[in-house]
Specification:
By secondary structure, this protein is α+β, with helices and mostly antiparallel strands. The protein has 2 domains: 123 residues, Probable inorganic polyphosphate/atp-NAD kinase, domain 1 (Rossmann fold), CATH 3.40.50; 170 residues, Tumour Suppressor Smad4. It has 8 helices and 16 strands. Strand 5 and strand 6 form a beta hairpin. The chain is globular. The two termini are 26 Å apart.
Amino acid sequence: MATLGVVVNPTARKGKAENRGARVAAILTERGHKVVDLSAPDLQGAHESARQAVVDGVDALIVAGGDGMTHLGVNVVAGTTLPLGIIPLGTGNDVARILRLPRHDLEESVATIEKSLEAGPRVIDAVRVTDGTHSMSEWFAGVLSAGFDAAVNARANVLKWPKGESVYVRALMLELGRYHPYGFEVDIDGELAWQSAAALVAVANGSDIGGGMHIAPDASLDDGMLDVVLAGPVGTATLLSVFPRVYRGTHVHHPALTILRGSNVVLRPRPDLGPMPPDAHTDGERVGPLPLECQCVPGALHVLAPQP
C-alpha cells in the first residue's frame, strides 16, 4: 500500500472538480492505497498544499487535470526523487502524450500509476527557467514557447470554446490578424547561436505542444539536451501552409526552419530586429517576458510512466 498525495485541478468547474476528485480518491482507496487529499480552492493553495505533503512525506504526488496541473506537479517534485503521477483530464495533455500515458481514462491512469510504483518510476530530464536575475525560477518538462506559438497558447487559454484540442486551431486563426515576426537573440551553451526576426522560437525537452503538434519531433526526454526550433520571419501565407505539417512533424524540413541543440539556452528580445516577443509559455502555462534562461537538468524528474 502506498500513501499518495492527490491534487485535482481547482480551476475546473466546482462540481466537476469535486466529482473527479472523489472518483480518483475512490479508485485509489479501493485498490488499497492511503489517499491524502491535497486539493485547494485555487492553484496557489494547491501548490502550497502539495509542497507541504512533500515535507510531511508521501510515496508519490498525483495530479489530475490538464497541462496546468502537470506543470504544478513538476514544479513541486523536480529536483527531488519523489515520483509524479499524472492523470490527464485536460485539453492539451502534451506532457502526458509524450510520456505515452492514457488520457481521459481514470481507471487506466490509476493502473499505469500502480504499475510504475511497482516497477519503479521513469527518470527524465527537466528544465529550469530563470529570468537572469534569479527573481523567478520555474521548471518545465515539455516545451517553452516564445514566438507566435506563445501568442496562440495565451489565446487558447482564455477561449471557452471549442472544447478539446481544436481550441488551438481556433486560437491560431484569431491570432493571425495580429501576427508579425518578433526580434530574437538566442545563445546556446554560452555562445551566440542565432539572431533574427522570427515567427516561432521553441525550446523543447519533449516533442509536443498545442494538443499534439510535434513541434520538435526528435526531442528526447532523457538525453540531457534541448532542441531549439527556430522559424525565420515568414509571412502569414507561409505560416498557414506550414501549420498543418506540424501535426506530422514534417515542418522541420521547411527551409525557414532551423533546429539547434544544447543544454543551456538563453532567449533575449531584440527590438532592433522586430517587436517585443509575447510572454513565454511552458507546458501550456505563462512564465513571463524575455529574457529567459533555460537549463536542462538531467534526471531531475521521476514520473510514474511506462519506461521508454
